[in-house]
Amino acid sequence: MTYIFHIRRQERAQRPAYWQDFTYDGQPGDSVAQALTVLNGRSPLRDRDGREAAPIRWQRSCLVRKCGACAMVIDGVPALACSTFLSSLSGPVITLEPLSLFPVVADLIVDRSFLYDRLKDWQIWLEHPVASSAWNWKNGYEAARCLLCGCCLEVCPNASPQSLFAGVAAAVQAYRILARETGDSPHRRHLRQAYRQQYFEHCGQSMACQQVCPARLPVTDLLACANSLALWKHSRW
């Protein structure tokens, strides 16, 4: 079957974006990542009109839905290229765009430094001995599966490039620390304050993040746990 990939391209952040089409002969079971790999394997790569084109820049690492590097907007929905199969898409024309909440580096590659900087600001790390118990190990495991891919921010109505709001990605990481670090240290108080001011007070609870999460995290459960620890200072919920 012949597919047409309609790709938003940009040489670098300062240059204007443009669209370019490529044809791909594949099977419905192929992933978007597989198609991009095949396209870039052509020498030379030519677009649908036969013009020679530069390789399509996109990020990838594990290609098994473990790292989140290949996150992009596929047919209007943020998703991972490695786990989005052509059979799940609506037609032979497939649109690929970079995530819009992050600065574009080139083509489908974005700079996620904003998200990582928020984690540094929140001090998402352990400073004291940790405790683990039967009631929090399951949710702790679920929270650790967050890929920090940025898909949740792409659909969040409260997120914007100008805001410090880092969405559920930061909230889930905060829960991981609050669930394990004991006591009432300055570090723990700082994290609770950051959670309240930069997440809780801005979240509209649309829960669009849960619908698009590539890791299928139980976002509502994790946020209930995080709220309990960050806002009400309870060890249980």
Structure description:
- Helix 5 crosses helix 8.
- A hairpin with a 2-residue loop joins strand 6 and strand 7.
- 32% of the residues lie in helices and 14% in strands.
- The longest helix is centred in the last third of the chain and has 15 residues.
- The protein is of the alpha+beta class and 237 residues long.
- The mean pLDDT is 92.
- The protein contains 8 helices and 7 strands.
- It starts with a strand and ends in a 7-residue tail after the last helix.
- It folds into 2 domains: 109 residues, Beta-grasp domain (Ubiquitin-like (UB roll), Roll), CATH 3.10.20; 118 residues, Orthogonal Bundle (Fumarate Reductase Iron-sulfur Protein, Chain B, domain 2), CATH 1.10.1060.10.
